[in-house]
Amino acid sequence: GRSWPAFMAFAGPIVGVPCSLEGFAFFFEAICLGLGLYGRDRIPRAAHLLAGLGVAVSGAASGACVVTVNAWMNTPAGYTLDAAGRVIDVDPVAAMRNPSAPGQVLHMLVAAWLATGWGVAGIHAWLLRSAPGHPFHRKGLALGLLLAGVCTLAQPLTGHVIAEATAHHQPVKLAALEARWEPGPRAAFAIGGWPDEAREETRFGLEIPALLSVLAFGDPDAVVAGLAEVPPADRPPVAVAHAAYQVMLATAGAMAVPTAVAALLAWRRRGVPEDRWFLALVVATGPLGMLGVEAGWTATETGRQPWVVQGVLRTADAVTPMPGLAVPLVGFVALYVFLGGACALLLRRQFLHSPGLARPEAR
User: Fold this and answer.
1) Residue 166 above 80 pLDDT?
2) pLDDT bracket for residue 358 (50, 70, 90)
3) Residue 173 pLDDT more than 90?
4) Cα dist from 58 to 53, 54, 284, whole Å
5) How many other C-beta atoms lie within 10 A of the C-beta of residue 151?
6) Least confident residue range of 27-31, 34-38, 245-249
7) How many Cβ atoms from other residues are within 10 Å of residue 189's Cβ?
8) CB count in 10 Å sphere of residue 303
9) Are 293 and 112 in contact (CB under 8 A)?
10) Could you tell me the pTM of the whole model?
11) What is the chain's Cα-based Rg?
12) DSSP conformation class of 76
């Protein structure tokens, strides 16, 4: 509210409902997480299981609500403007059901489960290397690989849903993500490359002819927009958006390899593979899901610029003109770095010293 007063003044009445629901889900999740972490052996097993389910359901609901707000920023809906430019006739349900919401919510939920699955699998694979055959870590590795594998296979499908919505409602963003300058049919899908915004060309990239037209519109002859159609002042930072998008795609491709290897080994061994080279591969893959999530958010947010609400409110007009914002920014970053470190230490202690979870030599 302090950093983006103009945005809150405009958007608050429209997206206040999903923001409030997100807060409710977040607090419910925190309560269930506390019961799950510290309730072991203190509450009935059924209650402990329900607490874990509560974390899963409320966490997904929290993510869905906040991503719905972000989707509204990409394709605003659920309101009208009067002659003076004031917001009237607000329909919060229509705002939550904006055209980008279904694809974005599905894509982000799958991405979150994917990142979690690989992170869990990576941790248990690391611990199995020093404690071979540990039953808890074998189960954790199996569960993490199962979740990660299913989501790795599903994520391209959810990405396709977003690509179609972006092509129809945010053609300039799609052009920026693909570093595409000239409009036209049979648009090529770009792999790699570095955009030269001054010369309006992308160098060193590999292009697959007509694939972008097929992915965006289902027709190889479909016309895809180009950045040259809009003034430079209305273009996103192409280099950042394109690079982040390519990193996201690269992580998705990289995670597909250990998914296939894990499936093959599990089928041949009739169980969870524990080869040291395979465990090392899973450990190396562990952080890629989170890296892909961060790259994807960077791509979608920079790709919308210079708008904070697409076509309605510019980012430059939404941010506070107050000087000295670097001071609270540095303070908040320092605070969250400290809290993040403390959280990691506490979770490590909870994990390694809980009954049944510690390594055999530590018990």
Assistant:
1) yes
2) low
3) yes
4) 8, 6, 30
5) 23
6) 34-38
7) 19
8) 24
9) yes
10) 0.86
11) 23
12) -
Positive or negative torsion for Cα 276, 278, 282, 288 = positive
Would you state the pLDDT for residue 328? 84
DSSP string, 270-299: TS----HHHHHHHHHHTTHHHHHHHHHHHH
Q: What is the DSSP letter of 188?
A: P
Question: What is the token pair recorded at 144?
Answer: 């993490």
What three-state secondary structure class fits 174?
helix
27: tokens are: 């607090």
Question: Phi and psi for 224 in degrees, rounded to 5?
Answer: -110, 135
What are the start-end ranges of the E strands in 235-352?
A: 307-309, 313-314
Contact 121, 258 (CB under 8 A): no
Q: At which residue do the structure tokens 């979770």 appear?
A: 347
Q: Which residues does residue 208 pair with via DSSP β-bridges, in sequence order?
A: 189
362 pLDDT band (50/70/90 cuts)? very low
Q: How many CB atoms are closer than 10 A to CB 37?
A: 15
The token pair that represents 191 in the structure block = 């792999």
